Amino acid sequence: MSEEFRPGTWYPIDSAPKDGTVVDLWRYHWVHWDQTKPEVRKEGERVVECSFFNDGWYAIREFSLLQNRWMRSDHDLYRPRKVSLGWVITHWTPIPSSPEAS
After folding, report:
1. What pairs with residue 41 in β-bridges?
2. Number of H helices, E strands in the chain
3. Does residue 15 fall inside a structural domain?
4. For 66-86, how does the pLDDT look when each residue is reduced to its tens digit (9 = 90+)?
5. Integer Cα distance of 10 and 17 in angstroms
6. Domain limits at 83?
7. Does a structural domain hold residue 76?
8. How far apart are the two ends of the chain, measured CA to CA in Å?
9. pLDDT tens for each residue of 6-44
């Protein structure tokens, strides 16, 4: 990855690497609180450890609240989960190096 991108800084998704590099993503969707009112708000979240494959962004791992641990997406079957379904991905940030690498 280029030296110009620093972990912890969010960059527009158009500048994200699409070569299989693992990054964190920011995505949002529109939330309708009351169907009788036109007001909506954006609700966003960070998605960790994602990579771009042939047709989009996929989560490599996710945290299971039921099992209280990190696991491979799609119940340990090693099938990444597409993170853009129903969401708009807007930004990315590089993964920091591990403490051992510092």
Report:
1. 31
2. 1, 8
3. yes
4. 555 555 554 444 556 777 777
5. 13
6. 11-94
7. yes
8. 17
9. 999 999 999 999 998 999 999 887 666 555 555 555 678
With beta carbons less than 8 A apart as the criterion, state whether 44 and 26 touch. yes
Under 8 Å between Cβ of 26 and 46? yes
1 in a domain, yes or no?
A: no
The tally of domains found in the chain comes to: 1
| Residue 74 domain flag | yes
* Beta strand residue intervals within 54-99, DSSP E: 56-59, 61-64, 69-72, 81-82, 88-94
pTM given for the model: 0.69
Question: With the CA atoms of 34, 35, 36 and 41 taken in that order, what torsion angle do they form, in degrees rounded to the nearest 10?
Answer: 50
Burial of 9 (0-12, 13-18, 19+ CB in 10 A): exposed
